[in-house]
Amino acid sequence: MHRLLPLVFLSLAVLCPSCAAEPAGPAPKPPAGGQPGEKPKDPAPAASAERPNAILISWDGLSREVVRELLKAERLPNLAALIKAGSFQEITVKGHETETRPGHAEMLTGLSADVTGVRSNSEGGEVPEGTTIFDRLKAAMGKDRIATIMVTGKAYVGSLVPDGSRKAIDTFDAGSRYAATVGPLALAALERYKGRRFAAFFHFLDPDSYGHGSGRDSEQYRKAAVTCDAWLGAMVEFLKKQKLEDSTLVYVMADHGMDEGGRQHYNAPDSWLATNDKEVTRGGTIADVPATLLARLGVDLAKLKPALLGKPLTGKPAPAEEKKAPEAKPKPVK
Ligand SMILES: [Zn+2]
């Protein structure tokens, strides 16, 4: 245990308007569903390349520019490996404050802030019942045909999920804790559902927390990203061991960035997406990522009500993008 952790927590509450706004509600409920080791009733078959799993990971508050800097310095080897298998895309935060709750409301539903009502950390409560990606997957496939998992590092990311949706998630575990806690919980959940098709959301608060505590330009902020990367590596290693690497789409992104030279994210719309999903060809907004995930897992987006704001980031890239390669040799100028 890091000796400074309690201090960091304390400073968090003071420095972070996002975190200060966190409701001090009752402790989150224990995970829904059966007990560890208990066999799921009517287990769904495991995933295959045609019927993939999905893991959506949020690295809270990690700015695009810093991700690029760390990739260039080869400090995020696991994110780099994911990008090598797929791509890195720019995601822009639009339509609400660049804060944790609205960012994750959009990430978990693919809906606009107009529909969810979550415009800032202090505005809006839970997203509408039945609209989370987990609800959509269960509704499209049948509730026992896909296992759903949500583990968060901020209790108030969990508080976005209404009670009915929460109960329908096979493992729901929300709390305020660092990657050292969330990482093992995530691995345990993957271990538990590895034999079934699954969709998981894992939330790591570390970059946001150290960004508020030490600033966007600090080494601590960068180290928090490196920690997240190590847990990504542990998950990928697990998938490899279970021979699930080729049948699991992994999407890593941020809910918002961090103000340049600062300790806040008042105006930090520069998010990003790193994925091994080869069909992803372009960037977009946060809402496009859950839309991509749902479409790639076989959900017919046209049938969803309320309709998603997001569109899948797949298909032919825009003409301007296509032009980039191959580059013609410049003709000598006379
Ligand atoms: Zn924050």
Give a quick rundown of the structure:
With 334 residues, the chain is an alpha/beta fold. It has helices spanning 5-15, 17-20, 64-72, 77-85, 100-109, 113-116, 133-141, 155-158, 163-168, 179-193, 206-214, 219-241, 288-296, 319-323, and strands spanning 53-59, 87-92, 147-152, 171-174, 198-204, 248-253, 270-275, 284-285.
The helix content is 25-40%
Radius of gyration: 19 Å
CATH architecture: 3-Layer(aba) Sandwich
Q: Strand order, biggest sheet?
A: 4-3-5-1-6-7-2-8
Q: What low-confidence regions span 5 or more consecutive residues with pLDDT below 50?
A: 4-33, 322-328
Q: What string gives the helices and strands in order?
A: HHEHHEHHHEHHEHEHHEEEHH
CATH class: Alpha Beta
Class computed from helices, strands and strand pairing = alpha/beta
Can you put this structure into words, describing what you see?
The protein is of the alpha/beta class. The chain has one domain (53-322): 3-Layer(aba) Sandwich (Alkaline Phosphatase, subunit A), CATH 3.40.720.10. The protein has 14 helices and eight strands. It has an eight-stranded mixed sheet, with helices on both faces. The longest helix has 23 residues, at 219-241. The radius of gyration is 19 Å and the shape is globular. The termini are far apart. Residues 4-33 and 322-328 have low confidence and may be disordered. Bound molecules: zinc ion (ZN). Zinc ion (ZN) is lined by residues 16, 18, 61, 100, 208, 212, 265.
